[in-house]
Each structure stands twice: as C-alpha cells, then as structure tokens.
From TrEMBL:
Annotated InterPro entries: Cu-oxidase-like_N, Cu-oxidase_2nd, Cu-oxidase_C, Cu-oxidase_fam, Cu_oxidase_CS, Cu_oxidase_Cu_BS, Cupredoxin, CuRO_1_LCC
Protein source organism: Camelina sativa (False flax)
Entry EC number(s): 1.10.3.2
Domain Plastocyanin-like residues, every copy: 28-140, 154-303, 411-545
Record keywords, A-Z: Apoplast, Copper, Glycoprotein, Lignin degradation, Metal-binding, Oxidoreductase, Repeat, Secreted, Signal
Catalytic reaction equation(s): 4 hydroquinone + O2 = 4 benzosemiquinone + 2 H2O
Family membership: Belongs to the multicopper oxidase family.
Official protein name in the record: Laccase
Organism superkingdom: Eukaryota
Signal peptide per UniProt: 1-21
Keyword Secreted belongs to the record: yes
Name of the gene encoding the protein in the UniProt record: LOC104722780
Amino acid sequence: MLHSLFNVFLISLFFYNNCIAHHYTFTVKEVPYTKLCSTKKILTVNGHFPGPVLKAYKGDTIYVTVRNRANENITMHWHGVEQPRNPWSAGPEYITQCPIRPGSDFTYKVIFSIEDTTVWWHAHSSWTRATVHGLIFIYPWLAEPLPFLEADHEVPLILGEWWKKDVREVVEEFIRTGGAPNVSDALTINGHPGFLYPCSKSDTFHLAVQEGKTYRIRMVNAAMNLILFFAIANHTLTVVGADGHYTKPLNATYITISPGETLDVLLQADQNPENTYYMAARAYQTGNITFNNSTTVGVLRYISSSKAKTSLFSGSYPNLPFYNDTSAAFGFFTKIKSLFSGQVPVQISRRIITTISINLLRCPQNSCAGPNGSRLAASMNNISFVTPSHVDILKAYYLHIKGVYGTRFPDFPPLIFNFTAENQPLFLQTPRLATEVKVVEFGEVVELVIQGTSLVGGGLDHPMHLHGFSFFVVGVGLGNYKISDEDPSSMYNLDDPPYKNTMTVPRNGWIAIRFAAVNPGVWFMHCHFDRHQTWGMNVVFIVKNGIWPNQQILPPPDDLPPCH
Ligand code: C2O
Ligand code: CU
C-alpha cells in the first residue's frame, strides 16, 4: 500500500513536471487585429485572440497572475470551476472583487475539485470578455480511465462574436441611449469569421483530420449575446461532456450551445477523405428582435486528400435548424443526461422561485432609445440588479461594511400574473432598481425555479449561469411553472439530469435546478447574454459559513485589488 502510494506520488510528479504548469501569467494588453477589412485594437491575453488554453488535472490548484497592461479595468472568471471556499478568485467585478486597475497585478488561485472535461475562463468586467477568453482542459488524475474511447487528438473550438467597432464603444453607446446594443458583425470559429464574410477567405478556421482517427472537440460558446447551432457536414457528433461533467454519449447531427456552455464532442473522421466538409454555426433566436443572422464557416479536410487547396471552397454545408426552431434547440438541450444516476438531492430544504424579465424604465420626455422612448432593463423577481460601484459585495460581507447591499431578494415573485401571456399589462414592465442578495445557510439544499416571462417583446430564451456550483437541471418546461403543485417532482428527472453551471430557460418557459449550498461564499448568478447582465438580470447568493473550519471561506489573498 505504502509502496503504491509512493508510486502514485512519483508518477504525479512526473506528470506535473512534464505536461502541466501550475503557474500561468496572463498579460492583458491591447493588440491590433484586422478582420472583415477593418483594423482595431482589442484586449487580449498575451497578445492572443482567443486566449491560451489552460490545462489542469482534476482536483488541481493552479495560479494565474493577471497583469493588467491595458488601459481599462479587468477581472478574470474561471467559468465552471466551483472554487470551493474561495470566492476571492471568482472574478465578477464589484461582486467578489474590485477591478485590477491598469498597471496592477493580481494572482488568482484557481481551485479545481469535482470538475472533469472542459470549462473555460473569461474576463468579467463590463464586456471585456468579448475578446478575453480561453478554454480550460481538465484531465483525469493519473491513469483514471475516461468513460469514453480515448481520442487521438484534442481540438479546441471557441465560438465567438466580432464587432468591427471597439466593443467599449458598443457598450458605452447602449448604456447611454437606453436602447439595444449594436448587433455584432460576424460570428467566429477560433477567432476566424470564415469565408462567407467579406475579406475573410484567409481568415477561415481549418481542421485537417486523418481518416480513421477520433477527435475530441472541446468547445465553448463565447459569444456575447447569441445561442448558436453548430454542425459539421456529413459527420455525426457524439457529445460526451457538458459544462465540466461527463454526459451519457449522445449522437447528434447538430448541437445547440448557449453563451457560457462548454461541450466535449467526439468526431470520427470516417467520411470520404476526398471531399471537403464545412462546419458552420449560426444563431438560434426567438422573439422579435434584431440579431446577427450571419453564418460562420470552417473547413474540415482529410490530410490524405489529394485535393489542392484551391478546391477547399467547394465543399458540403451542414444542415442547421432554422433560427427560431425552439424544438430543435431544446430537443438538443433536453437530451443531455448526466453519465451518472442517483446523485440528485431528493430532499430540498428551500424552494426559491424567481421570474426573469426584460423591462422598461421611463425616461424624461421619452428621450431614450428603447421602445416608446424608454430605457431597456432586465430583472429577477422584478429587481433589476444594481452593481455596486465602490466596494464589492464579498468585501462588504466579509468586513461587515453596511450600505453596499440588502438581503431582501424575495423567495417568490412579488406579483403573480400569467407570466407567459401574449399581452401583458404595461405596469408590469417596470422593475425595482436595487442591490438585493439571497442569503442561504450552509448546507441548505436549494431548488431554484426560474420562470421566463413575456414582458417586453414577448419573451426570449435566457442562458442562466451560477458561479460557485454545478447544479442538476431537474426540470425544463414551457409555459408557467405550476406554483400550486404540492410535489412537482413527478414532472422532474431526479435520476440522471444534466449537471451544469449554465442552463437555458426556454422562451416563455421555466427550468428547475437543484444544488446543495455547501460552498460558502458570495456567488453571482446571471444571464450569460451580456446585454441582459448589463441590464440587471442578476442576483447574488451569499452562502454562509458552516460550523467547521473546512466549511468556511478562505482568508482573503494579500494582493487582492484595492477598492477606491
Ligand atoms: Cu461565464 Cu459570470 O460568467
Ligand atoms: Cu437573458
């Protein structure tokens, strides 16, 4: 026994020294990039867009020193990493830290625990994540077997959104006017718009595969405001992981992926190697709003192919579902199941029901650019979240600083109405502006029901993301959640529901999620459409300390950026 433990130790040293660094440096700086025939400076990590891949073994702790050498504030978030007891490194600006100012540094301690497969990192200050993001590959510890066939190669694949304008200007403008933000000019695959866009022939993502090999695509939707359909012509995709957890293998001809979500997808290079195949992504979009309806395309080619490079632009396109095909989108989402059964908490100690809505605020003389001269907003339980601007909530909580936040986020919608009705009385459109958090005792088992509403524009899908936890998606439905139901578990999957950190609430529908509040800290929850986050579709959970030392928030790091 001792002997084998010692071996384990040696092997792990070997692995650590040879493959995986424990300390990374992220220098955030502006670099010029040219896309779609126009050049602008973008924020990057180490000059790269998208940013570098981080690699970690399950349960590892890594350190990432973020050096801000740009001229705007930055913070970094490790999306999907639960960070047990360590909200200090969670990242959302003015929620768990004050920003890293230009010229300053901060070292994030990223504590992996139960995560497997793929998660990602991104900036969490204003809309800086548009270009500051990258993947995190998680490997099983030592020789722990994978629950699926080991792939021959790994392929990082990041779907993104590109604006020709400076993203800062896009943000500044829609906040000033109160209207909707400019839609992006392109979608991208690994930063490349693809040859369907102007000036982009040479700015197309190419994947060269070898016949007979298996590729593990580790992907994320890093777009700011769009749920995407993605497919590869003639090739079946086998989903084996989602949001950092294994799933039952699922064969799919297309996938749907929301901002914030990660997927691990196996691709077999099993088609005629003489042909060229395109991969493509475009929006899934419901509701009556303007959106980027363009398509990004990448090229899949077999290495053995005798075809010359010029013929790469005659290949077959995949079939993608139509833009507003909700049954296609949720047909995919709801087919994802956890690999494991019987892990869902059956007894809950707390049920919280919250609406999520788009709202309108009145402007003097109807001078804003939203509908009827009003200002667009968004809310949860009719509270449009106001982000503090001087001290972050974690610091205020830890140091008992009064006046930064209130603790009155309601457990129940303040007004019950037909949430998904076609026409809504206008008075329901106005939210309350406040910074209210939800305080939860350590160890409570929370069921959170998130109900979409049709307020303002008839309803939209919302990818809701929670920091600090993975949650089981026990239910998804259209229409109104039946609040009166005594035991709603008959309509739940309590056997093998997906274990996620981001789940999309269907347009005019609801989701029910469960998690055990065993991670003390301050944890942000928000819509992963950045425009909705900016408008206030957010809430903060404070999970109190437990009684034992290992149930308490870690002490703050020394180099935490100061607030001022
Ligand atoms: Cu990926 Cu708070 O977000
Ligand atoms: Cu939303």
